[in-house]
Design brief:
Elements: H1 2-40, H2 43-60, E1 66-70, H3 77-84, H4 97-107, E2 111-119, E3 123-130, E4 135-139, E5 144-147, E6 153-157, E7 169-175, H5 189-204, E8 211-215, E9 222-226, E10 230-235, H6 240-251, E11 260-263, E12 275-278
Length: 280
């Protein structure tokens, strides 16, 4: 009897444990079937599934929550964020950063460079570098325009504006069909190249606040009006920066109120020569 009782208890325990074993076996079987299915899928199908998962993830998880702007002085953060076209709630991973940067450069002409980055999970970083006006040019419409050192048209300026006299005037050719944010196009490109070359020399020598005019009406006799009292003859503008540096050295030997023509057209790295012709 005791033996039969032990046999009955053993069978009872076996029956109680059987469903649990079946459940464990069934769960393992599901994962096994999924693993087998994954291995049977071709590579392109796996890539498609991955792309769908990433799309769903970007749609519901990576949204623009914050827009940061750095490097701006002339334009406010609100102006830049409004112009770029981004807003909170946009999908971060699908933002067209190239188009937004181009829009900023066109509509905000004082921006020289724009870099837009994404920072997960929800931040857009806009880094800008601003242009500075280096000179003023006349257009074929009779209007004056501020330009940067690389020839970008920044904005129209009135000749009665207090800032008008703060920049050298480039004369000898005119800008055609000026558009804010575009590179200036001139009636005579050869003259414009000479003007830019001399302007680079003026900027390199730190003379932009004391030079009134750069005149290239005669390409063989380019002149710079300094402090509204000294006309600097550069000749054909070759070695313009060197000639201007030599002029500054000669300037120390002239009276503080001297006015006239300083001819440095024959000055070069091989020979330095300056001739002063005072006004009568």
């Amino acid at each position: 009897m005791a033996q039969n009782k032990r046999h009955t208890q053993k069978n009872h325990r076996r029956r109680r444990s059987s469903p649990r074993k079946q459940r464990i076996s069934g769960r393992s079987g599901i994962w096994l079937q999924l693993n087998r299915l994954r291995k049977r899928l071709p590579v392109w199908a796996r890539l498609c599934i991955l792309a769908v998962l990433l799309l769903l993830l970007s749609t519901f998880c990576f949204r623009v929550r914050n827009i940061e702007v750095s490097g701006n002085q002339r334009y406010t953060t609100e102006q830049i964020t409004e112009t770029c076209g981004f807003s909170t709630g946009d999908q971060l991973l699908t933002l067209n950063r190239t188009q937004a940067a181009a829009r900023l450069l066109v509509k905000l002409p004082f921006l020289q460079q724009v870099c837009i980055h994404r920072r997960l999970p929800g931040t857009v970083v806009i880094e800008v570098a601003e242009s500075t006006a280096s000179a003023v040019v006349l257009s074929d419409y009779g209007t004056w325009w501020m330009i940067s050192s690389d020839g970008k048209l920044l904005q129209e300026i009135d000749d009665e504006d207090p800032d008008f006299s703060s920049y050298p005037l480039l004369t000898g050719t005119e800008v055609t069909l000026p558009v804010s944010g575009d590179l200036a196009e001139y009636q005579d490109t050869a003259t414009a190249d000479i003007l830019y070359k001399v302007l680079d020399g003026v900027l390199a020598c730190g003379m932009q606040t004391t030079v009134e005019t750069i005149d290239a009406s005669d390409l063989s006799s380019v002149t710079v009006l300094y402090d509204n009292r000294l006309t600097v003859e550069l000749g054909d503008a070759s070695d313009a920066e060197y000639k201007l540096l030599y002029f500054l050295a000669v300037l120390d030997s002239l009276p503080a109120d001297a006015s006239g023509v300083v001819d440095v057209s024959f000055t070069s790295a091989l020979e330095e020569q300056a001739i002063f012709h005072p006004y009568e």
